[in-house]
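Researcher: Next sequence.
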Amino acid sequence: MPNRARDWLRQAFVDPEQAEDARRAGRHEWACFAAHKELRTITTDRSRARRPFGMPVRSSRSSVLKWPDRETVDRAIREWAAAVTRQRQDVLAIAYVGSYARGDWGVGSDVDLLIVVAASEQPFHRRALEFDTRALPVPPDVLVYTIAEWRTMARGEGRLWRVAEQEGVWVKDARDEIEVC
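Model: Next structure:
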């Protein structure tokens, strides 16, 4: 098998550029995908090095893996969101979408967090790093949009916006302040 390390390293530098180009072009969902790829790489190693998540573990005598239920995750997200909004006045809304929001989570499910901020000087693919999510009981995918980006997605009724409106659990809900102009 050929050593692909150089190819992977080269791609790690391309992903953030693709994400930023897509964001500038108004293709927010593609920007999200490209940024997500890079964030997975960055945060996986960094999180393990700092402290393992409060991840479920196997019992020493059982092959059963215990995974946090929806109520546990919801409570943890609400506590986390309250702490975040006390520290950061620029956070306008926080929701979670995906399997925990729909109620069809399972062992190994992550939680998909959506955060809308007033503004950010950071490129899209770096914004999630500003949020410490280690207190959450399952690994999160964090997507941070500015109010301008969220409004653009809402006007075009982008897929993520529709999902957030239909199934999102808004733990900090300021959507009336984020009204689409």
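Model: Confidence is low (pLDDT under 50) at residues 42-52. Strands lie at 91-97, 111-117, 140-146, 169-172.
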